[in-house]
Amino acid sequence: MSLGKQFRMKRVVNEDGTCLICALDHGMTSPAFLPPLADTGARLREAIRGGANVIMMSAGFARQTVAEYRKDVAWAMMLTASATGSSVPNQIVHIGSVEEAAASAADAVVVFVALTGPEEARMLEYVARAGEACDRWGIPFIAEAEYPTTYKAVEELQGEYGFDYLIRNARLCAELGADIIKSNWPGDAQGFEKIVQATRLPTVLAGGPRITDAELLHRMEAAMKAGGVGCSVGRNIFAHEHPEAMTRALARVIRERWPATQALEELEEAVASRRLGSRG
Fold first, then answer.
1. Is the pLDDT assigned to residue 151 strictly greater than 60?
2. Which of 1, 65, 111, 149 is the most exposed place for a label (fewest CB within 10 A)?
3. 25 catalytic per annotation
């Protein structure tokens, strides 16, 4: 690993070997605008207060929110967007370069990797080029080796893009130069552990579609026991009624290794307190 990558990785992955990413890039992936992102700066502050050490977002909104970043919080720059209005399924558009990320002092770059369909060959070629450029510029490469879309029900996604799809995607990204793998939940802890073992890279669990707080925290606990290093969560943080408390609950499970039930209890108390305060 180059010297540049070593320095930047120290900000992306904490000294304890954990990573808590809040993804605020959904303006480039969602088929519809998500109202909680109207005040991206507020969502960023809430996530940081809750314990996020990496924020995933576009260069455009990094410019708008740079004053909100603390010195100990890393910025992971998105290099792709989803063409959700296109007639071509699973089409990913390249919107930035590793060189731009280096000039912008980004701590990492992120590429969404959607396989299958007519775009797969172009996708793989782009991932390989991104891996080579990241080595050249000394920037960690986070590969979102995920479902082609996360805007369907979990059951539908796992049925169509289950464990076999996810482990192939993760391994391909590792082969092509990724430094960190972001993977969806394959359905059970055994499957997630196999994905971690297939890449031998730091692997974070994607939050995916909106699910219950209990389900997210129990998945996170299982993923950590299976060898994961943390999470990359978007809607399940910024669309939550208490984003700071939701982030803190994830931090409890990831960094302090609290049981999910204990973290959920603290989260529910924080939510109840906020509701009571809003009524008073």
1. no
2. 1
3. yes
The confidence score (pLDDT) of residue 280 equals: 62
pLDDT in the model for residue 119: 85
> How far apart are the C-alpha atoms of 93 and 266, rounded to whole Å?
40
Give the pLDDT score at 153: 59
d(CA 198, CA 190): 12
Is 213 assigned a catalytic role? no
Write down the catalytic residue from 5, 147, 179, 182: 182
Topology annotation, domain 3-279 = TIM Barrel (3.20.20)
* Catalytic-role residue among 25, 107, 179, 213: 25
Active site residue 126: no
- Partner residues linked to 81 by β-bridges: 93
Burial 96-113 (b: 16+ CB within 10 A, else e): bbbeebbeeebbbbbbbb
Cα gap 53→20, rounded to integer Å: 6
pLDDT at 154: 60
- Confirm if 214 and 237 have CB atoms less than 8 A apart: no
